[in-house]
Design brief:
Length: 520
């Protein structure tokens, strides 16, 4: 843990001072929900739990949406909130609420830190947060405890953890290998857990050995390069993609779900196989859901199990009628770029500018669904988003957290005008932290996704039109660079300029919301 995000208050000033002394940088944000999502972005890039710091009462209450996001995005977030000293807690009421009760539905555990057991409590919190499925843990800390000395000099250290690799002799591996050998149409369905386990090379080897197409969730995009012939990209929220992918999955005679978490999927993925015996689920943790029912469930580290399988299988041909290739071609057709300017073309040229090393975050909205389907991710965890909770205004704090954790990497935040207006104050955070981020704004003057849902239900548009904010001027007012573009040549020029600029850049891409009609 090296990064903390939050908004200070009187109850946490001693904690913030101690964090600095311990080498954990405290980053001031403009809102606690944004701070929680920044910590999520940093955690994804660092691979470690990161820290949210809030003050008592309204400070923690402000963070609830960000903590809920951490639950559904499987982020090992440590939440430390200031709390009124125990000596006055029963009498004093100003800003006092029951923090643990407030967060009870959202956190894996909640503890109050005491001097005698502070180190052990923190170690327990870290262990709980990082156990699959990962999630947030809450700690209350009073000013008196923060300023006191522990009565014990014992500081526990995290135990060395060993994951015993699965072997070709394990019963579960033997069973699975036999199922694969007997299969003529195997398919791999892959989720975030496998991407976080850095299992991409092992997964790609298995897919190539048995000729299995690979479908991922949005957050597992890039687990194998998406220009690979066996990659069918991601699924989650697109009816157009579902019309192609779900029939293919139904034709498969064996579906191997590696670290797959249905929290990212739409209702069309309820019971996505009619014959549950052909579905095998492999995961380090059994998620609490009834979205689907697997005939076989194997509790295992996905990476080690993949490696064991690769040691027991030989290359062979499957899918004799070549249905996966036909599905890949169909997906390319439905998400092909239709016009010289608009959301499709913007995604194409941003994909080109990001290259194989860039990191992109994307906010909720119509642009997120199109980008998540059309984007070609070369590496895992290079496209970050709120895919389970789908909260608005996630892209900007995710980008800030990612850039703080990896300053050398080029980071882009892709947002809609509605999302940016929700969290526009964090432009000041980017300025104050001196982060050279590039914000690509899809400005269609509409909550386009909601408008599309209204239209599909036969309803008139209501509450979805947005006025035309001059975001370029806003960016300049916050100390950055801002520009409005309406052609692909201007967009390409501004992307190149942003690469060489020391501060943040905001490129507002203006087009009509009708460009999304039939897009996903």
């Amino acid at each position: 843990m090296r990064h903390a995000f939050g908004v200070p208050g009187g109850e946490v000033v001693t904690l913030i001072d101690a964090l600095q002394a311990a080498g954990i940088t405290f980053n001031l944000t403009r809102h606690e929900t944004s701070a929680a999502i920044m910590a999520a972005g940093a955690s994804t890039i660092s691979g470690n739990p990161e820290l949210l710091v809030t003050t008592v009462g309204p400070g923690l209450a402000n963070a609830v949406n960000g903590i809920a996001d951490a639950v559904q995005e499987r982020v090992p977030l440590i939440v430390i909130s200031g709390v009124v000293d125990r000596a006055t807690r029963a009498r004093y009421t100003h800003q006092v609420i029951d923090h643990a009760q407030l967060l009870r539905p959202l956190v894996k555990a909640s503890f109050e830190v005491e001097p005698e057991s502070a180190a052990s409590t923190v170690m327990r919190a870290l262990a709980i947060a990082t156990t699959e499925p990962m999630g947030p843990v809450h700690l209350d800390l009073s000013p008196a405890v923060a300023a006191s000395l522990s009565s014990s000099e014992f500081i526990p250290k995290a135990p060395k953890r060993f994951i015993t690799p699965a072997s070709v002799t394990d019963p579960g591996v033997r069973l699975l290998a036999e199922r694969i050998r007997a299969s003529e149409r195997p398919l791999l369905l892959v989720g975030l857990e496998t991407a976080r386990n850095q299992a991409g090379p092992a997964l790609q080897h298995l897919a190539e050995t048995i000729g299995a197409p690979v479908v991922t969730t949005y957050k597992a995009k890039g687990i194998i390069p998406e220009d690979h012939p066996l990659s069918l990209g991601a699924a989650g929220l697109s009816p157009l993609a579902d019309k192609i992918l779900l029939p293919l999955i139904e034709k498969a005679d064996l579906v191997l779900a590696f670290g797959y978490d249905p929290i990212e999927m739409r209702l069309g993925w309820l019971d996505f196989v009619t014959d549950q015996t052909k579905l095998v689920e492999i995961s380090g943790a059994h998620a609490d859901h009834s979205m689907h029912h697997a005939g076989t469930w194997i509790s295992a580290d996905t990476k080690s199990l993949l490696q064991a399988l690769n040691g027991s299988l030989v290359e062979r041909k499957t899918w004799p009628s070549h249905e996966p290739a036909a599905a890949k071609a169909a997906l390319d057709r439905v998400f092909s770029t239709r016009d010289a300017w608009g959301p499709h073309a913007i995604v194409d040229h941003l994909n080109e500018a990001a290259g194989t090393d860039g990191l992109v975050t994307v906010d909720s909205g119509a642009h997120r669904i199109l980008l998540s389907q059309k984007w070609r991710a070369a590496t895992p965890l290079s496209l970050l988003q709120s895919a389970g909770f789908c909260t608005m205004n996630a892209a900007l704090p995710l980008a800030i957290g990612a850039k703080v954790a990896d300053p050398a990497r080029r980071v882009f935040a892709v947002m809609g005008d509605g999302g940016l207006e929700m969290g526009i104050g964090e432009l000041a955070t980017i300025r104050d932290l001196g982060l050279p981020l590039t914000i690509v704004l899809f400005q269609d003057r509409s909550l386009a996704l909601i408008a599309m849902k209204q239209a599909s239900a036969g309803l008139a548009p209501a509450g979805v039109a947005l006025g035309e904010t001059d975001f370029a001027a806003v960016a300049i007012g916050f100390g950055g660079y801002g520009v409005n573009v309406e052609t692909i040549d201007d967009f390409r020029t501004e992307l190149e300029g942003a690469y060489h600029r020391p501060g943040f850049s905001l490129i507002a891409c203006r087009f009509d919301a009708s460009a999304y009609d039939g897009a996903f």
